[in-house]
Specification:
This protein has nine helices and eight strands. The protein has 281 residues and is α+β, with helices and mostly antiparallel strands. The chain has three domains: 7-94, Helix Hairpins; 113-161, SH3 type barrels (Roll), CATH 2.30.30; 165-281, 2-Layer Sandwich (Alpha-Beta Plaits). The chain has a five-stranded antiparallel beta sheet. It has a three-stranded antiparallel beta sheet with strand order 6-8-7, covered by helices on one side. Strand 2 and strand 3 form a beta hairpin. Helix 7 crosses helix 8. It is elongated.
Length: 281
């Protein structure tokens, strides 16, 4: 007849009970601790960061539970840990770029320099953000090209976000003749600005002197516009400015050079043409 008391009091039975209890506790922690982390971070960080934190906590709980179970069963884990450590070092060297992109991705999620749908420029690449992932960011350019940018590049290089704010300033340059009354030209252009439907009245649009050019005086036109109407506003501003200047008879000059001849130059040219005429006869 089987002796129940001897079985219950045996070492292997006690170890088995401990393993079961540890496994149950590990399961409970693995199930509910990530949810607790998600709830704590719900309104503080991005959704993707919450998911990463949940998985990280889950892996930690499972790892700790496995190590405790191995110790309970008196399985030597030092050699396992040493092998895992060497393996981790080898993988670390091999996956250095991946790790750099991963950390950069976490920084992007935390800092939020741009969002899906934003128009960004990284070096010479300009396009709309399609997705922001752990290792890379995908951008669709305006000529319909797909560009994958490693997240480490977005951290190391300058990124320009054209749609971060709802309002953006646009400015264009226009030349007027040196014969033009600048005050009058400024009034005409500013009146055209106020008539543009896409140009906001606040902040106030205005015109400022830019430079004395080779063919005319350069003015810079400033106006603020909703980012969703940028191209339409830029076109409208150019059209209305041109119409207003034409209506007032203000010339937009062509490139030109003023050449003056001295008496010596005139004599040399006259002698040249006389000699050429003689040679032809």
């Amino acid at each position: 007849m089987v002796d129940i008391s001897s079985i219950v009091s045996s070492e292997w039975f006690i170890k088995a009970v401990k393993v079961v209890i540890i496994a149950i506790l590990g399961f409970i922690f693995a199930r509910y601790l990530p949810k607790l982390v998600r709830r704590v971070l719900e309104y503080r960080v991005d959704e993707k960061i919450r998911k990463i934190a949940q998985k990280f906590v889950l892996y930690i709980v499972v790892s700790v539970a496995v190590i405790i179970i191995l110790q309970t069963l008196e399985i030597e884990i030092s050699s396992i840990l040493a092998t895992a450590g060497l393996l981790s070092i080898a993988v670390g060297f091999a996956a250095q770029t991946t790790l750099s992109n991963l950390i950069s991705g976490l920084m992007i999620f935390s800092e939020r320099p741009f969002a899906i749908g934003d128009v960004i420029k990284v070096e010479d690449k300009l396009g709309v953000v399609q997705s922001i992932d752990i290792l890379s960011t995908k951008v669709k350019t305006f000529n319909n090209l797909f560009v994958r940018i490693p997240n480490s590049s977005l951290i190391e290089k300058m990124v320009t976000n054209y749609t971060k704010y709802p309002v953006r300033r646009l400015d264009i340059l226009v030349d007027v003749s040196y014969m033009t009354d600048l005050e009058r030209a400024k009034e005409v252009i500013e009146d055209a600005l106020r008539k543009c439907k896409t140009i906001l009245l606040e902040p106030r649009p205005f015109v400022a002197f830019e430079s004395f050019g080779e063919s005319g005086i350069t003015l810079r036109i400033f106006g603020w516009i909703d980012i969703n109407e940028y191209l339409a506003g830029l076109t409208e501003l150019a059209v209305e400015t041109k119409k207003a200047l034409d209506r007032e008879g203000i010339e937009i000059p062509f490139p030109q050079r003023v050449v003056r001849f001295t008496e010596e130059t005139e004599d040399s040219l006259r002698a040249y043409w006389m000699k050429k005429s003689t040679d032809n006869h």
